[in-house]
Each structure stands twice: as C-alpha cells, then as structure tokens.
Amino acid sequence: MIGIGPFPIQAVVVAGAVLLAWLVARNIARGLPDTPAKAAGGLLLDAAFWGFVAGRLAYIGQWWKEYSAAPMSMIAIGDGGFAWWMGVPVSAAFIWWRTRSIRVLRSPVLSGLAAGVVVWVAANGVLSLMLRSAEPLPDLPLTTLDEHPVSLSAYEGRPVVLNLWASWCPPCRREMPAFEQAQTAFPDVAFVMLNQGESAQQAQAFLQGEGLMLEDVLLDPSSSAMRTLRSRGLPTTLFFDAQGRMVGTHMGEITLAALKNTVQRRLHSPHRPSVAQGLP
C-alpha cells in the first residue's frame, strides 16, 4: 500500500501541491515591486479552497443518484471525490476576479496555481506507474464460506476489486451495501470480499443478519492478505486490472460513488461468473 503514515498518498500529493503553489506565489510576489507576498499567499489559499468546493460539488452532481441515496456521504471527502476539470478553472476564475483591482497580484498567484497543478499531474502519473509496478494480485490460499479451498489466482483474467474487511469493523459494515450494489452494476468485475481473521460462522452470521447478498466472499483466517499487501487497517480496497496489476487503492470507508467512479475509469473486462459461487 502506498501511503505516508496514516495518510493515503493521494491526500499527501494534494497537500504537497497546494503547499508548493503557495510557496511559488509568495516567492514570485517577493521579487516584484509593490507586491505583498503575504497577500499573494493568502489569495492562493482562498482560491484553492473555492476550487475544492467547486470540484466536490461537481463530483456530487456527477454521482447525484448515489449521493442522494445516502446524503451523509456527500461530506465524506475521504472518498477522494473531486472533479478537477471544475475545480481548477474555478480557482483560476476566482484569482482573476479578486485581482481585478490589484493586478500586481494576478501574475504571481496564477503562476503558483499553475505550478501546483503541474506538480499534482506529474505526481499522479508517477503514482500510477508505481502502482502498476507493484506486486500483482497475490496468490493467497483462502477458503469460501463453505470452507472449500480457493486462491485468488482463480480470478485470473478478470478485473478484481479486493476488499479487506471484518464484521467487528464499523466502517467495513457501513460500506458493505455499496459493494452489493456495485457487483450488480458491474457484473464483469469480481468484487472479492476478503474477511480478515474471522471464522466462517462469524462472517456468515454478519452477512445474514444484514441481509447482504455478496457473491464472492472469501475467508482469510490468518489475515495473510493484510501482511502481503501491507494494509495498515480495515477496511482497505484494492483495484486490480485483468492482468492482475494494481491500478488503485483506497484506505478507509469508500462511498458507492467513489467505488463506481474508480471501477468505471480503471477496470474493463468481459463478464465471467462468480468463482466462489461456482465452487462445489
């Protein structure tokens, strides 16, 4: 898993890009006559804030059906749901509007914004390469709820969304309905719900108690997946393409909108039946 401490790397990249943009705006302003560096830095942060707000609202609009079904998920910004194509222009427009009477600030602040966007794009490109060069979908020995042996290699040639969960984990419990809906929306993708450290009876009791109909529920009693994939906590969701390459990760609870968005953007494959259900 790629991250720094308890923070997902995507959040660190965004914070780093904003910090760099702020520094660039201030440093350029310092080199210009009659240009207050402090004002330039403050304006850059204001623009970033309104860009994030606009990007979040645009993303919610894209996935309104999913968010409206669970309104509280709209404020779950940890799902990474932001529309950059709205956020960046709004930030630039805000800067342009605020500097209409103080033109001297326009150039350094817009330059800072441009630097932040370039770094953000470059960092995301590097992250994509790092993910694709990471270890492929591990061939772990697991069991089904009926205690038949199975390994993740059984899903070879098919995109896989691998969710590490446990019934004692509140965020895991809350996000389960999202996976149930996603498996119906994307029958070509295997949504493998890999229970960590619990027995078949414990997992089955939870699923039946919640009325969940999940197709690919597997058991990992020794939590070997967490060690192999270096997961730092539950829930963790990992996305693998049809070649078994990791193309995305998500630490913590994921919303239905974020789940569908990642699957649509990164995973494509012809439909194949559930491996877990296909076992005798």
Number of strands: 9
Question: Based on the structure given, which CATH architecture of the largest domain is correct?
Answer: 3-Layer(aba) Sandwich
- Terminal CA distance: 34 Å
Q: Please mark out the parts with pLDDT under 50 across 5 or more consecutive residues, or reply none.
A: 269-274
CATH superfamily of the largest domain: Glutaredoxin
Overall CATH class of the largest domain: Alpha Beta
Amount of beta strand: 5-15%
What percentage of residues falls in helices of 4 or more residues?
40-55%
- Rounded mean pLDDT score: 90
- Give, in spatial order, the strands making up the sheet with the most strands: 4-3-7-6-5-8-9
Largest β sheet strand count, sense and barrel closure: 7 strands, mixed
Measured on Cα atoms, how large is the radius of gyration?
A: 22 Å
Structural class: alpha+beta
Topology-level CATH name of the largest domain? Glutaredoxin
Spell out the helices and strands N to C.
EEHHHHHEEEHEHEHEEHH
Molecular shape: elongated
Task: Provide a compact summary of the structure.
It is built from 10 helices and 9 strands. The protein has helices at residues 9-30, 37-62, 64-69, 84-98, 106-132, 170-185, 200-210, 224-228, 256-266, 275-278, and strands spanning 3-4, 7-8, 141-144, 149-151, 160-165, 190-196, 216-220, 236-240, 246-251.
